[in-house]
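Recall that a protein's primary structure is simply its ordered list of amino acids. Everything else, from secondary elements to tertiary packing, is in principle encoded there. The following example makes that idea concrete.
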Amino acid sequence: MSAHTASRTIRTRVAFAFTASALALLAASPAQATDGYFLNGIGAKAKGMGGVAIALPQDALSTATNPAAATALEKRVDFGVEIFVPDRGATISGNGAGLDGDYSGNGANPFILPEFGYVRPLSDHVSVALTINGNGGMNTDYEANPFANFGATGPAGVDLKQVFISPTIAVEFAEGHSLGVSPILLVQGFRATGIQPFTAASADPAHFTHNGTDWSFGGGFRVGYLGELAPGINVGAFYQSRIWAGGFDDYAGLFAQQGGFDVPESYGAGIAVQPVEGVTLGVDVKRIEYSEVQSVGNPLAPLFTGTPFGAEGGPGFGWEDVTVFKVGGSVDVSEDLTLRAGYGRSDNPVPSSETFINILAPGVVQDHFTVGATLGIGGGKELTAFAMRAPRNTVEGSGSIPAPYGGGEADVRLAETSFGMSFGWSF
């Protein structure tokens, strides 16, 4: 095979993988709710290390966390699949309208989420990359509807899916120091069912529930820095802007600002060190500003001061900003085998006063334990596997169900298990 033919074949395979990833992600229903509703890691290698990636480029998906990582990677492509199994539910007690009971939101499980990354150096100091990944999402499916005594029919729940498509360019502006930037295209879909009784509190009752999956598009950007402070010591930082998105018109009566649902801004920093040859340790810290997006951050309280669902300043899920810590390590057991482990800790975004509406979106897990491994299979090819367990966390309501809905408390809970594999090829 000629060099030209081989190059064309590689380009064809990469294009095919890109197209397949995009279609699969758009079809998937991601139910991740790890760092709030952000993923706890992007890329199989990072996921095996608790999500650590800001100062530790390991595969092409690293550029989805820190765009500057592209200059630290050789030409490669990565394609991964995660199988995700959340365990979500709620318990209602002391409710005067007859809602008391224990409810499972697990009507839909498991979820399959692919991801794709490609990096290509253009010169010794400039590299480009492309990633496609799910941001996470919120999914609940209560086959026994918690709101049935209010007159709700059918299963209750929501399904939010978000896909980021991020081309990247990165430049090494000084030896060992790089900057990168990624414009971000957002594609997102949303569906709500089984919440008919609350349409009376909406500014637009016809666009509140049971309108199928509505789609919207948006854009923003991500910038990053990666630097080598000394041999074996790297630092990194990133900032991701708010992703400004078109409204969900079919749910203009549910979300504040007539269906507005932007992705909140986030930023963070990390450090990675190699204390001895073959051993790498990393730490990341990240901040997510959920409260800045009205549909996510506004509390339920405006409903009882005359501002209905869907209006400017209208009720939301009441999520608070969160800080996330991640720590991970890897050991090269041999030339072809690397083992990983990690831990992540996220603040809980759901306050005890807002659990009633968050029956639909109980993104409350806080601790994440991960393991992973990579096996080289020759010819620049490798297989990576990982597993993650987030133990159940329960947020007990406190003054959570307003008197007009019968009072009492709603306790929400979530646990998560995920595992996956990826194929990487450096060529």
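The longest helix spans residues 3-27. The first strand starts at residue 76 and ends at 93.
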